[in-house]
Design goal:
The chain has helices spanning about 5-20, 40-50, 70, 80-85, 90-95, 120-135, 150-155, 170-185, 200-215, 235-240, 245-250, 255-270, and strands spanning about 25-30, 55-60, 95, 105, 140-145, 160-165, 190-195, 225-230. With about 270 residues, it is α/β, with parallel strands linked by helices. It has a single domain, classed as Rossmann fold, CATH 3.40.50. The longest helix has 17 residues, at about 170-185. It is globular, with a radius of gyration of 18 Å. The two termini are about 30 Å apart.
Length: about 270
């Protein structure tokens, strides 16, 4: 299933690029094959570091059914991404201001597992509509875990993709499946190793994944780029429970230092 990209999805991307060609807004998806690797926490904190550089950011919680970005940003949404997809509200009503300068949020609906049967392409249309506003410098999409059709939809529409993983074998198996899928239609993937002791650990595993891809004859024009690691820190979970961002509250911790280096690397690359 990873080797096939639907004709419908391909047409969507073609139309999107044509329609949004004058928009300044770049789309960055942050994803993971496996759940529980810290993807949403990384998304929220990365967006904060971009916003500190006076970039206008909007975060879209695209984790359908398991949305939690409203907790990390400490907001209580009245309307969500799902409401807009179901055509029951306007785009303006789902864009929420957060307490952080330059960061807006489109929240998802947690615990809402029902999806419209014909919802394919409608979720990514939200991204098109935000791009057409030409207001934001970056859209950060926090995708769901796994590789279902809705995750694929958001990945296809993104300019850049960051995969968050850990050194756990099951997480690595899933991220390799992601590499296989993206190698068909994308140019590159950034790898972020979370809860990893040293930069070298992530670098070594990344090289192993790259070598495996070469051995299995994946698209040689597709690049996997390791951009850094974030060390494990029990205080990160505490700040999350308090609805705060660790790079702000734990500014001088090793984890914050790691993430700052990683964000600087992303900025250099894009």
């Amino acid at each position: 299933m990873f080797e096939q990209i639907s004709t419908q999805a391909s047409k969507l991307i073609s139309l999107t690029r044509s329609k949004n060609k004058t928009s300044k807004t770049k789309v960055i998806a942050i994803t993971s094959g496996k759940g529980g690797v810290g993807k949403s926490t990384c998304t929220a904190n990365i967006s904060y570091l971009f916003a500190k550089e006076n970039k206008k950011i909007i975060v879209v919680d695209a984790d359908i059914g398991l949305a939690n970005m409203q907790i990390l940003f400490d907001v209580k949404p009245q309307k969500t991404l799902n409401d807009y997809v179901e055509k029951s509200t306007s785009l303006k009503s789902i864009i929420l201001e957060t307490k952080y300068k330059n960061i807006s949020l489109v929240a998802g609906k947690s615990g809402h597992s029902h999806l419209l049967e014909d919802s394919s392409n409608q979720f990514s249309q939200v991204i098109n509509d935000i791009k057409d506003l030409n207001t934001y410098d970056y859209i950060f999409i926090d995708t769901g875990a796994g590789l279902n059709k809705h995750v694929q939809e958001f990945l296809e529409i993104s300019d850049e993709i960051i995969a968050v993983t850990t050194a756990d074998p099951s997480a690595l198996t899933d991220v390799y499946a992601l590499i296989k899928m993206l190698s068909i239609s994308k140019k590159r993937l950034f790898l972020l190793f979370n809860q990893t002791r040293t930069f070298k650990t992530g670098e070594t595993i990344s090289n192993s994944l790259i070598n495996l891809a070469i051995k299995n004859n994946l698209n040689r024009n597709f690049m996997v780029k390791y951009i850094g690691n974030v060390v494990a820190d029990l205080n990160i979970a505490t700040t999350g429970r308090l609805r705060k961002l660790f790079v702000k509250e734990l500014e001088y911790s090793q984890a914050s230092e790691d993430l700052n280096k990683l964000v600087n690397k992303i900025k250099e690359e894009i």
